[in-house]
Amino acid sequence: MLVNLGTPVAPTAAAVRAFLSEFLSDSAVVDFPRWIWAPILHGIVLRLRPARVAHQYQAIWTGAGSPLRVSTERIAAALRARATGRFGVSTAYRYGEPSLDTTLGRLAREHNGEVIVVPLFPQRTGSTTGTAFARARDAAARAGVAGRVAERLVAPDDPHYIAAMAARWRDAFAGAPQPPEHLVISFHGIPARYDRGEGRQYSRDCEATTVALLDAIDWPRSRATLAFQSKFGPERWLEPATASVIAELPARGIRRVAVITPGFLTDGLETIEEIGIRARAAFVAAGGESLLRVPAANDHPELLLALEKLVLA
The pTM is what? Predict the structure, then answer.
C-alpha cells in the first residue's frame, strides 16, 4: 500500500478548503494546542487561503486530474505490472480519498495476507512518514488487521531511488538549451523545532540524499545548495529557504540555475507550481536567465525497483 500526502478533488476553493481543513487539523503537521489553533484555522486560514491555493492548483491541473494523484496511480500501475502476481498494489492518501481507512478496510475484506505500508517520502519526519504510519496503525486496528500490517521506508540514500533522481537530472540537463551554473536541492521544509525535537533526523536524511545525489551526478558541492521550501506560518523553519536562495543567486552572478526536489517522489503543487512557475518567475525578476526544473522520480523504473525490493525484503 503506497501512501502519499493527498490532494484536493478539484481545483476549486471549496475543494481546497476541505483538503486544507483535514491537512492542517493534523497535530503532526501543526502541533499548537487545539484551543489556540482551531480559531486561527477556521477563522482566518480557511477563509483566506483556499482561493489563492485553488488558483495555484488551476495552473497545474490536468485533464486526468491532480498531478500528484495521476503520478501516484501511475507508480502503482507500473509496480503492479512488475509484480506479476507476486503481490498486489494499492494506494491510499493521508488526507483525502481513498484514505488509509478506506484502503485498509477494503484490503481486510478482500485479502488475508500481510499489508506492507510504504509512505512515498524518503526523508523521515513526524509530519510525513510519522503521521502516515500512525494513521495506518489506527486504521488497521479499526479494520481488525493490526497484526498483518508491516511498515517499510525508502531509505534517503537508497541506491535505486538515487539512480532514479540522477536519471531525471541527466535527462533534464541534456534537454537544457544551456547548462545550469548552480544546482539547488530543495526539500519540503518543517519547523526547526520539529527537527530539533526529532534529533535532526529529517535534516540528516535530507543531507544524506544530497550527498548521494551529488555523488551520483558528479556535481561539485561548491556549485550546489541544499534548501527548504513551502514554509507555512510565522515560526522559524529549516533554512536556507529555497525562495531566498533562488532570489539571491543572480546577485552572485549566477544566471542559470537548476532545481531538483528529491523529497517529492511525485510531481505536484510544490514542484510544478511552486518551483516551475513561482520560483522561475522570481529568479528571472531578480536578474536570472533560466531556471531548469528537474522532474520528480515519478514512475521511473529505478524507483519502481526500490519499491519492489521493499515488498520482497
Answer: 0.96
